[in-house]
């Protein structure tokens, strides 16, 4: 079993890591002798909580190079619902790979002579049906070299939460509405390998599939390792893998979390 300090580290990660791929529906029970677990669905959270996440990532392969920076604000509304706003900036330096809104065959940056840069503005809700599970649904639009509208859905859930090695399943789907662009889907499965009150080490595997516009699907996958530093509220994730189009690739991401009770 995890120690109290380890559980605090895991709770810290759960408080800030929100991720989503499906919609969820809550049914309110009528007046019965036993209260519904969602009886306070519309009760405003007290105290209210505001969180800020600043993140950055870099992806490199022999066919595709890109970086990302952004921040996200989440405001609690009830115990089950939060509001999210997200601002991101992307740079594609060369190639044609996953997580790009451009039409297939339209990212030959060597021919274009300069990297492509675009920003992304998103807003939506975070649904928290029960402890350890988050379903985020965002809508937004790109500005700059990309101007496509999109829907971004994220799902994250912890399994065997009270065991010595909890398991986290997370997924992300981005659907672009621009004609003949691709859609991207990611999935990660990790477990807590080691935890203390200050540090949590996660190991697992993850991958991505992307396609659209009549082109064949492409994919990539590989092992990954993550570290959550509870004292600094910081996540560091590293993945190395192989895919059909990018071949060998590396992905590193860093996120710093802040939170305030109002």
What labels would you give this structure?
single chain; 262 residues; mainly beta; Porin; twelve-stranded antiparallel beta barrel; 6% helix; globular; disordered N terminus
Summarize the structure in words.
Strand 11 (234-243) and strand 12 form a beta hairpin. The chain has helices spanning 4-16, 109-112, and strands at residues 49-61, 64-76, 81-95, 116-127, 133-144, 149-159, 167-176, 183-195, 199-212, 215-229, 234-243, 247-261. By secondary structure, it is mostly beta strands. It is globular and about 50 Å long. It has a single domain (4-24, 45-261), classed as Beta Barrel (Porin). It has a twelve-stranded antiparallel barrel with strand order 1-2-3-4-5-6-7-8-9-10-11-12. The protein is built from two helices and twelve strands. The protein starts with a helix and ends with a strand.
């Amino acid at each position: 079993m995890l120690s109290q300090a380890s559980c605090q580290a895991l709770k810290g990660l759960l408080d800030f890591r929100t991720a989503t791929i499906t919609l969820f529906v809550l049914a309110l029970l009528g007046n019965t002798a036993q209260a519904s677990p969602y009886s306070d669905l519309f009760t405003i959270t007290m105290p209210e909580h505001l969180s800020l996440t600043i993140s950055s990532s870099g992806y490199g392969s022999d066919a595709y190079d890109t970086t990302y920076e952004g921040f996200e604000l989440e405001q609690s509304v009830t115990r089950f619902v939060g509001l999210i706003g997200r601002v991101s900036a992307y740079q594609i330096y060369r190639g044609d790979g996953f997580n790009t809104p451009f039409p297939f065959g339209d990212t030959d940056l060597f021919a274009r002579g300069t990297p492509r840069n675009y920003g992304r503005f998103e807003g939506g809700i975070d649904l928290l049906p029960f402890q350890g599970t988050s379903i985020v649904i965002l809508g937004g639009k790109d500005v700059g070299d990309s101007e496509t509208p999109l829907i971004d859905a994220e799902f994250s859930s912890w399994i065997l939460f009270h065991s010595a090695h909890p398991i986290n399943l997370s997924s992300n789907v981005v659907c672009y509405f621009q004609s003949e662009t691709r859609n991207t889907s990611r999935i990660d499965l990790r477990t807590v390998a080691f935890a203390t009150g200050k540090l949590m080490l996660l190991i697992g595997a993850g991958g991505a599939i992307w396609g659209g516009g009549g082109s064949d699907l492409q994919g990539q996958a590989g092992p990954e390792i993550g570290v959550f530093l509870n004292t600094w509220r910081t996540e560091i994730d590293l993945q190395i893998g192989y895919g059909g189009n990018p071949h060998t690739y590396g992905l590193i991401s860093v996120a710093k979390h802040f939170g305030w009770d109002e």
